[in-house]
Amino acid sequence: MDDDAGDASPPPAAAGGGGATAAQSRDMAASPTSSRSVTETVNGSHRFVIQGYSLAKGMGVGKHIASETFSVGGYQWAVYFYPDGKNPEDNSAYVSVFIALASEGTDVRALFELTLLDQSGKGKHKVHSHFDRSLESGPYTLKYRGSMWGYKRFFRRTALETSDFLKDDCLKINCTVGVVVSTIDYSRPHSILVPDSDIGYHFGTLLDNHEGVDVVLNVGGERFHAHKLVLAARSTVFRSKFFDDEDGERNEPGENDDVQEIVIDDMEPKVFKAMLHFIYRDTLVDDNELGGSSSEGSIFDTLAAKLLAAADKYDLARLRLLCESYLCKAISVATVASTLALADRHHAMELKAVCLKFAAENLSAVIRTEGFDYLKDNCPSLQSEILRTLAGCEEECSSGGKSQSVWGQLSDGGDTSGRRVRPRT
Hints:
The chain has 16 helices and 13 strands. It is of the alpha+beta class and 425 residues long. A hairpin with a 2-residue loop joins β3 and β4. Mean pLDDT is 82; it is low at 1-28 and 401-425.
């Protein structure tokens, strides 16, 4: 800044902006976001014409003529012209010009430019610009209303009065203010919250209200009302039953509007009801129902096992997986063999793989269960599969430095308590 520049002290040099740290995405599959900090100036100009300069002389040191206020960057500004100068030490040898913050504001950062216009038409204006020096010192900070930036020794009075800047006792001063503003440009992916699917609720209501039913399924004397299209859409078995004739020709829906009754004699009513619940609602029935078993406590007698069999029979792949997942949670030393037989019988391959691995890893205890005896009498091939799985486990263990092999467990008698062991999958 020139030696005669104004009252306002420049702020410290602008510090480099730190990069914003990105928040970790909740959904790892979501697109990455980005942000950009943009710092720029909002510029505005005002022309201040001082008519009757000679009459303003002699008003006194420190006395000024003010322009009308003007707005730039959300703040009000004014130009102050001191005909006898602002600094008493200069003895009225200079005129002073300042730009003042005329509204409330705290730490307003801005760049400034003052131009005394050459009125001869030669274009030799006197320009004092802060814009072209912003890299050297940064913007000025005006801390409160009345803070100013400018020059106490803007122009020597004797030189001004004989120059082309004064014409017809008139001076013209252009003022430009650039208020510094910072914004964040954030490429936020626009999104609208979508609730979970409620199609299962609506289809379930359709089932409960018997609205538009066109088929009755008689299961063990209990009649269930349903919709052919819904059943056919979910199960290829039902689709074939309802819409293929005996010669394999396809019948169009709606050809026979009479309510058809079909007898199903190989399933209990409670199992069929649970299967209908899934077909319409796409969910399993309550856990308390699924785990209910007969007095003998066999896994085959639970609703979950019977529903698995129904899923296999009616080609309901998702229902089968849901049942597999449910039954997998209940695997223990006492139940793994019978669960393995159940999985093998109804093509539950995920459940079967878990059972094989669990049985192999806990074989010394499993072979002493009633379920293993059941395998020996009814599913000898599954015993062979357990042994093949055991051989694979032994190969893994041999490279892992296990202290005692599964064969060692067998020779030592192992765990005969039948306690539940967590499946390791």
